[in-house]
Design brief:
Blueprint (H helix, E strand, L loop, with lengths): L9 E2 L1 E3 L2 E3 L6 E5 L6 E6 L3 H20 L2 H17 L1 H11 L4 H25 L12 E9 L2 E5 L7 H12 L3 E5 L5 H11 L9 E3 L4 H10 L5 E5 L2 H10 L4 E5 L5 E4 L5 H13 L11 E5 L3 H15 L18 H16 L3 E4 L16 E4 L6 H4 L6 E7 L2 H10 L5 E5 L3 H10 L4 E4 L21 E2 L6 H5 L1 E9 L1
Parallel strand pairs: 1-5, 7-8, 7-10, 8-9, 10-11, 12-13, 12-17, 13-16, 15-16, 17-18
Antiparallel strand pairs: 2-3, 4-5, 6-20, 11-19, 14-15
Helix pairs in contact: 1-7, 2-4, 3-4, 3-6, 4-5, 9-10
The structure holds nicotinamide-adenine-dinucleotide (NAD).
Amino acid sequence: MTAQHELGRDWGLYIDGQWQTSSTTDRISSISPSSGKVIATVSQGSSADIDKAVQAARRASRSWASASPFYRAEVMNKASQLIAGEREVLARALADDQGKPLVSEAYDEVDELVLYFSMAAEDAKRQSGSMPHSIDPTRRVLQYRVPLGVVGVISPWNWPYTMGAEVFAPALAAGNSVIWVPAPSTAACSALLVEIFVEAGFPNGVFNFVTGLGAVVGDALCAHPSVDGIGFVGSVATGEKIAVRAAGKRQILELGGNGPFVVLEDANLEKAAAAVMDASFLCAGQSCTAGELFLVHRSVKEEFLEMVASLTKESIHLGDPFSPETTMGPLNNEACADKFDEHVKDAIAKGARIVQGGKREGGFPTTLYAQATILDGVNPDMLIASSETFGPVVPILEISSDQDAIELVNRFGFGLTSAVFTSDLSRGLSYAESVDAGWVNVNASTNLWESHLPFGGRSGTLSGRGRVGGSSVLDAFSEPKVVILQL
Ligand code: NAD
């Protein structure tokens, strides 16, 4: 760890190229979910701070927008290198502030973050226009894309680095100025990231960072008249509020899901059971793409259940995020842990059977360590089936046919990701084409995704609107411009 970049301090706001104090003196303590210790504090910003950041972004916007995309790409690539150079300090901060295991998960998030910046740099250079024909032969037409202007980005705490960067890196590369509002519970590691990557040399005001309560600073950002676009990653409930508060602005809304994971009777059960470990226990289940509902053909359910139970015992080691053996850390916060308790309790009350886990594990410094939990006899009326639990759960519901699975998946209104296991690829494709989901994996975990591909909820579902990944954000946060030259 370098002395220069350290998580443990009292962080300010980064506005107009300067770290500065908030207009309020209120602070938010960053408490490590694994140790319970206060590891840093962040400013509890106000709507006045948002206004200051938006004004700075607006002032910087025209010259950043008109800079060469090759210059912007150079800055983004430099940011990517700076992040890569601080892999260790960033991964440790993530394990401390978010709670994800250092060895099995935190390094991966930093590596993906590096990729977001370099991918945005490449995509910015490739954005191109066209020269369509004019009705009149004495005219020439230019059609190309221009940035929106000022973009606000609001992100969650489950992947504190990449969920923000998947939106703000391409938004910046496309020529927008940005204000990033991170989730309060992982704002300290987000501040550390900002401190590192702004050394790449963004002109003052191009990138701004304001911490605080979402309902205050996030809301002020959405409603600010000088903001042209909002990129939001978070829950369905907050997304619905933002859709209204940011009405009239360009919006990307990446919301929740319940990741239905289907196992048909011809599936390779060993591979399906192995995929459950990733689907349900990565980030302790706190992933929008987590497998949270397992629809398993009744003829193979018992065998599959046994395999999943023994593999869970063998491979999921709940523990301190800094211990190399740990494969699952604590939940990030008490609200998330309460939801886990509530959903398990509701399932049991409605007739489900606990095969394994079901409680918070004692003997740790905090009460946030939830056991890897497997439930059998789940039905669609249980909260654990119909809504997002966001915890380490494998709720198993029996089906009798492919059609049963399709009907159940489409019943709950989410539309983010799904997975199906079958040895017949035609059956897999037919399932993929029949379910309302923006992304379907055949014979792979719901948590498998590739960051250069468009990712997001199917339109009209609860999971949001628009896409991230690849050049999706560059397209969403830029718009066409037409210039006619009369010769
Ligand atoms: P959340 O909606 O509670 O908070 C997300 C962000 O919104 C935070 O920064 C929060 O401070 C802010 N916020 C809260 N109230 C606000 C308001 N009124 N106005 C503006 N901003 C406000 O979500 P969370 O608990 O941080 O994250 C978990 C959720 O995120 C899950 O539902 C998960 O599925 C979803 N998620 C979705 C994706 C995706 O790509 N679809 C990815 C990761 C997480």
